[in-house]
Amino acid sequence: xxxxxxxxxxxxxxxxxxxxxxxxxxxxxxxxxxxxxxxxxxxxxxxxxxxxxxxxxxxxxxxxxxxxxxxxxxxxxxxxxxxxxxxxxxxxxxxxxxxxxxxxxxxxxxxxxxxxx
Length: 117
Fold this sequence. Notes:
This protein is of the alpha+beta class. It has one domain (14-112). It has helices at residues 9-12, 23-32, 63-66, 87-93; strands at 35-40, 47-51, 98-101, 106-109. Strands 1-2 form a two-stranded antiparallel ribbon. It has a two-stranded antiparallel sheet with strand order 3-4. It is globular. The mean pLDDT is 92.
């Protein structure tokens, strides 16, 4: 998502699902800083990088290889009540939200990103 210094997750979108960065975005920035993507945790909420000069023989993964679908549900309705939306239902509700497309180097709507896993 585009940077907003006043960002508050609970105010950005009622679902509480609009936050963070994609693995591809994190990998893009990490590579610029000399880091390699090693993988994700099994819950699907953390990715791990190592500085290239310390990597040794550890295998590097692409964002697609490292992706693990989130294993928890925390979506909310307009009144703040948990709704436990599926991954696809959450994406649909966020389809009009702005995200930064690193391939195009521009802000687009989430619905314009074709490869949402």
